[in-house]
Amino acid sequence: MLREVNPGTVTEVELDAEDRFKYLFIALGASIEGFKAMRKVLVIDATFLKTVYGGMLVIATAQDPNRHHYPIAFGVIDSENHASWNWFFRMLRKVVPDEDGLVFISDRHQSIIKGVMDVFPNASHGHCIWHLSQNLRPKLTGDKDLGVEKFKECAHIYTKTEFSIQYGDFRRRYPRAAEYLDNSIGVEQWARSHAERDKYNIYTSNSAESMNAVFKEVRKYHLLPMIDAILEKFSEWCFDIDKYPCIHGIAAAIKHCRNEWRTTDVSIYGLCSKYYLIETWALAYYKTIYVVPHESQWTFPADYEEKIAKPPDYKPKKGRNQETRFPSTGEKRRKRTQNKARPGINLESWLQPPPNDENVRMPISYTQSSESEPSEDMSWARADGNWGIPRYCFCGTYVKLVVCTTGNNQGRKEYKCPNYEDGGEHLQKWWDDAVNEEFSVVHNKFETQKESIHHAYQNPMLESLRESVRIMRAQLDDLEKRLEEKETQISKLRDLLAKW
């Protein structure tokens, strides 16, 4: 259906020997057509998916003449390895030809480097200078931020002469970093002045990283809802080394040609690359991306209906799912310093009473479950000595969580005042009773919120909003029909003009 509503779209799904899902590739027809008017620079990156099945979301993006991100293709692979990246690049070659002038920008992942070399031998491959700057930090001495800025300045220089001067100074100040760049990277991979082909103003993988940030929440979805969300977002968007001169250069060229012995017939459009002309920019967005219609309107070939794609195998992992990004090749994860004044919170520390920093007098709490009700103000529920987890005894002493060592309740946890054994009325309460009461407070609060949401959903005002949305949808359907009629009329006029 995606190919039917978006002509020219290229899709590919690969299953393993057991008919389990393995790879997915999608390149929309509008994006393929629009890339013909783009600078031939592709930014490649992958980010992990947050479902139990794992996998990676791969995105290939370009930049339009106005420096806006322009997605070309995306896909899903099992992991970042040679086989999966090679498959993605082979699919990408169906929509992006391997030709001189094509440049890839990515981090230094070895599978990406190998995939570009194998599938796009005529293309050039540059590395993201931001990732390189993070790799350099451990090798810089003194002010690391200053060293990173000096490296970026060297990367942005236009001429080889100026680069030799600036990079020579960088090499003297940071010999370890320069040795790493010379031996492990290669100057042609990151320096604009030594690049084999034009990278224009694109020297980081920020385009793909920005896409990853946009789809941060979407990556928690399973495959089909995630694809629908990505396509919906795409439909909303559609949608001399730098190759554009500065205004001072244009003014100087015009004045220079106004001398008596030179012609004054100078066009500023001849001083600018075709990729920055408005006509070229318009070509990138002249096609529309349509979302997939409702399932009731889907039509499948007979052989497709028989195919069944099973989910990939997975092994349940301990702990929570990965939420933060994986560090790239050579990048070290920053250490997080813990505030000693505020230790981390876990269930055990939460159930422990707080330190004795207040003098709070509390009513008596007996050994059985409390018969009183919690405070109406939930934030003060723990202030009731006869409800929930106690903090202090009525005598003002901080209570402790201990284990009973005598009687039938031996081994049972209890909250107990240190002065309990001295006689008198002091606090003692079983731990399980206190926790049950504490959780009942949370449960009551949840039910209250649930009830308020239920009443809000049944608000008559929402009915009018739903009716307004329904009317707007009907109007949109009518506009779509009119647009189709206009397109039909335009095509007929074009045929008549061609015959005429």
Average pLDDT, rounded to a whole number, is 73
Strand order of the largest sheet: 1-2-5-4-3-6-7
Structural class: alpha+beta
- Helix residue percentage: 25-40%
Question: Which of globular, elongated, flat, extended, rod-shaped describes the shape?
Answer: extended
Tell me the domain tally: 4
Straight-line distance between termini: 37 Å
Given the structure, what is the number of helices?
Answer: 16
Beta-strand percentage range:
5-15%
Low-confidence stretches: 238-250, 260-264, 356-385
Radius of gyration: 33 Å
Biggest sheet architecture: 7 strands, mixed
What is the strand tally? Answer: 10
Order of helices and strands: HEEHEEEHEHEHHHHHHHHHHEEEHH
Coiled coil: 462-496
InterPro entries: MULE_transposase_dom (IPR018289), Znf_GRF (IPR010666)
Keywords: Coiled coil, Metal-binding, Zinc, Zinc-finger
Organism: Arabidopsis thaliana x Arabidopsis arenosa
Tags for this model:
500 residues, alpha+beta, 4 domains, seven-stranded mixed β-sheet, three-stranded antiparallel β-sheet, 16 helices, 10 strands, 39% helix, extended
Notes on the protein architecture:
InterPro entries: MULE_transposase_dom, Znf_GRF. GO terms for molecular function: zinc ion binding. This is MULE transposase domain. Keywords: Coiled coil, Metal-binding, Zinc, Zinc-finger. There is one protein chain. The chain has helices at about 1-5, 30-35, 80-90, 110-120, 130-135, 145-155, 160-175, 175-185, 205-215, 225-235, 245-255, 280-285, 300-305, 345-350, 430-455, 460-500; strands at about 10-15, 20-25, 40-50, 55-65, 70-75, 105, 125, 400-405, 415, 430. The protein has about 500 residues and is of the alpha+beta class. The chain folds into four domains: about 1-235, no CATH class; about 240-285, no CATH class; about 345-455, no CATH class; about 460-500. It has a seven-stranded mixed beta sheet, sandwiched between helices. Strands 8-9-10 form a three-stranded antiparallel beta sheet. A hairpin with a 5-residue loop joins strand 4 (about 55-65) and strand 5. Helix 7 packs across helix 8 (about 175-185). About 25% of the residues are buried.
